[in-house]
Amino acid sequence: MPLMDVEDLRMYYRTSSGWVRAVDGLAFKLESGHGLGVVGESGCGKTSIAITLMKILPRNARIFSGKIIFDGKDLVPMGETAMRKNIRWSGISLIFQGAMNALNPVFRIDDQIVEAIKLHEPNVTEKEAKERIAKLFELVGVDPSRASNYPHEFSGGMKQRACIAMALACNPKMLISDEPSTALDVIIAAQILKLLRELKQKLNLGMMVISHDLSIVTETCEEAAIVYAGKMAEFGDIVQIFKNPLHPYTQGLLSAFPSIKAQKTRLISIPGSPPDLTKPPPGCRFNPRCKYAMEICRKKQPALIETEKGHYAACHLVNPIN
Amino acid sequence: MDELIKVENLKKYFPVNLGFFRSIVSRSQIFVKAVDNISFDIKRKEIFGLAGESGSGKTTTGRVILRLIEPTAGKAYFKGKNIFETRQTDTKTLRRQMQMIFQDPYESLNPRFTVYDIISEPLKIHKIYSSEKQVQEKVLERLEEVKITPPEQFLLRYPHELSGGQRQRVALARSLVLDPEFVVADEPVSMLDVSIRAEVLNLMFDLIEKHNVSFLYITHDLALARHICDRVGIMYLGKIVEMSETEKIVYDPLHPYTKALMVAVPIPDPNARRSEAVIKGEIPSPINPPSGCRFHTRCPSYIGDICRTKEPELLDVGGEHYVACHLYNK
Question: What is the distance between the alpha carbons of residues A79 and A188, in angstroms, rounded to a whole number?
């Protein structure tokens, strides 16, 4: 049984100009010890996916349909108290984008983590919690004696590590990481990605890495989901996606991305920009930017179909398996 | 002589504000050595890259060359003329030939200016044309060049009505409207989406070809530098530690820091070797940089006392490949 099984998930935001379809029919499975990368441009609904899975939605957002089966339980009908008690932090943890700004500057770092632990596990004493923090800091590669420092005494990389330690404080089964390495320098980013990869294996975590950067996903994950305008464009094993990208959007992303090892070529951009999600274009949402767009693309929305084992794409040009 | 820009022994120290009490008690002033004695040159029609981690002094270098901030010491020549010795009035004529593109197109464009105001402002400041009609023609022509089409429809729009990519293209049009010969581009695409980056960069290439512009391209993204720059200088704590043609830096890095940087760059290919040998620690503070070679505290190929005591010079190891490391100073 997969750790997380999402079916037909829809989450829209209500705005003055209509419903923004930020997550529109999402489906995927995630196993323990596996990494799933979610890739797309900004405004494609990547972060919306993360906050929907944790159900930490702003007031104007609503889940319209779908199931989020986590560890055998469906999270969609679950109440707020149960979510807080059993799921958030102890089941699924989230490391926010720009984690260095996620720490409260006027509290010591260990006190902030103790607060999180005590909130979710009221039986733990302060002393036990501090012992746990020391272990966590060792795990993420920060000297445990620095735990009682204030955030400003930490460097960017150390803050990011502290945030990872905090996310792991209640032994979650799944970790969602939103842009784990943006705002960090190359060498520090590489250290953090390596840490995430090791933690995933050591703690058998199900991990979801959200990024606009394909290389970050390839460094940390086994599977990738390419999202475009709230919909999944392609899903599959990361090697399959790189070797044989099927969706024109994936192909576009790959050729727009500079690689340090590849031949020095002119990078090719995807013309245009993502659509306004209050009025997505009819048919395939990518059709106004797609160079292969045909008549059918403007009329009918393509379904996500399996083209080879475990490799799915939503495009009228691909053929189903056999 | 095909050098357009020549920088010699450039230094920029920022004084550290100690606060009232300590400034009375302590006699010595403390400095952040943002740029510490660097030399390089940029040839005509060349894109020279400066790469390094944040805090290595890349942006400061770019700004000092344009005299947006004053240097502490050193010389910088533009077509043989020392930029730092020109008087205020001459700086204005100099600025006509030297322009800058900033990192964040959301902050570098005045939100109360229309696209027309933004692009025509440099023309008006430098009084290039006498009639408004000529100004308008030039603006339209430049907008067309940066593929903001149809340009007439964009003239009266405000920056908030444009997407990030469009904003950065307007910024590009603004910096090129005076037909400069040299442009400092400070991470011009780091705020843009991957899919749009290529568009802005390709546009830059085309304009370089068309107008014979030289670029100083400042970036922290080595993969991008490799696709853009002809030559690259790698900076660490205010020093250039290695400088050569981009291909040599990528395929044959010599300095241990450059090697570490190359290993750390994530590769968008799942079959590629995972970067395991990442160096530890973080960049030290530029207020009190390590003695000797500044990289010795993190260096995996530390060879002994010499690294700690003596500062290595930037020397040519053959084929205009410059390295500042004791491993190669034989």
Answer: 39
Inspect the interface and report whether the beta carbons of B224 and A258 lie closer than 8 Å: yes
For B3-42, what is each residue's pLDDT tens digit?
Answer: 899 999 999 999 887 777 777 777 677 888 899 999 999 9
From the DSSP assignment, how many helices (H) and strands (E) are in chain B? 12, 12
For chain A, what is the radius of gyration of the CA atoms? 20
User: Is there a contact between B197 and A253 if contact means CB atoms under 8 Å apart?
Assistant: no
Domain boundaries, chain B: 3-328
Which pairs count as long-range contacts for A261-269, CB under 8 Å and 24+ apart, including other chains? A261/B267, A261/B269, A261/B272, A264/B226, A264/B227, A264/B246, A264/B247, A265/B227, A266/B202, A266/B205, A267/B197, A267/B198, A267/B201, A267/B202, A267/B227, A268/B198, A269/B195, A269/B196, A269/B197, A269/B198, A269/B199, A269/B202
Q: What is the pLDDT of residue A6?
A: 94
Is B54 within 8 Å of A252 when comparing Cβ atoms?
A: no
Give residues with Cβ within 8 angstroms of B310, minimum separation 6: B292, B293, B326
B277 has pLDDT over 70: no
CA atoms of B153 and B148, how far apart (whole Å): 9
How many Å lie between the alpha carbon of B275 and the closest alpha carbon of chain A?
8
| pLDDT tens digits for range A118-177 | 988 888 999 999 999 999 999 998 999 999 999 988 888 889 999 999 999 999 999 999
The greatest distance separating any two alpha carbons of chain B, rounded to the nearest whole angstrom, comes to 68
Contacts of B270 in chain A (CB under 8 A): 218, 238-239, 242
Rounded Cα distance between B182 and B163, Å, is 27
Tens-place pLDDT, residues A1-42 = 899 999 999 999 999 988 999 999 999 999 999 999 999 888
Domains and CATH numbers, chain A: 4-91+170-313 (3.40.50.300)
Cα B105 to Cα B115: distance, rounded to the nearest angstrom: 13
CATH number, span B3-328: 3.40.50.300
Q: Which residue of B has its CA nearest to A214?
A: B268
